[in-house]
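task queued by scheduler; priority normal; single chain, no ligands, no partner chains; default sampling; output format set to structure tokens
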Amino acid sequence: MTDALTALFEGKEVRAIEQNGEVWFPLIDLTDMWGLHRNTLRDMIKRNEKKFQGFVSTCAHVTCAGQVAVNEPGLYLLMGAVNTSRLKNPQAAEVILRFQRWVPKLIQQYRKKEIVQAPANQDEQIKSELSRASLIAQETGGDPRAFQRVALEKLGLGEYAKALDTLPPAIIHGEPGEWMNPTDIGYECALTAQQVNYWLLNHEFQIRDGPLWRLTPKGMDYGEEYVFEATSKHSEIRIRWHRSVLIASGLKRSQAETQIALPAKV
């Protein structure tokens, strides 16, 4: 029997996957929750393969198929292996320390079957509802954030609905403003177009669909897909972004009106 179970730690999902009589935790959930780079824990395991032997597996459940996961002993090994005093991000260190105190409660909830079971199609249901909300906002000229809040509350994700209030205002399609492609954004942020694309991927503004980039429901508030026609008569779907994505994705920070500007270069 394999059931996908989820719990929340500070508003972030932690999947506990029952597989072959053991509970397994996908590395991607742990890295996102702890605020680490996606490859940090995987690289740590690779450097200590013998130490983690028997504690690492490939997830077989539909909600995380193909992802690397650790079982309960492996989770404890990872927590012990992460040197929080050496992390460059002090916030990540604090999150990990809080999680170390919280994880026994998670395990206890799992054993008592108190963790809410997540349906296999939950991710698709969320994407569908958010896409519908964005479409209604676009057709009615309403605030996309308000419609998305309704969609999340309908799905029982009230905490995520509240989190929308912490994001920069979303754009309404059709408003005046500058549209930018990844190369334009890269020039402004001193990055390559590839680095921009992967930044937007890691921050869930777009996903990879074969050779193409496609907007996520979150990304639909800041960009739009269009058909690019090449001189060779080849056409493909591309994404152009509104300037507001720079602040929303964290590529640039907003500047308060009261903040003193630097003097102009002479």
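post-processing summary
- The chain has three domains: 4-117, 122-166, 179-248.
- The mean pLDDT is 76.
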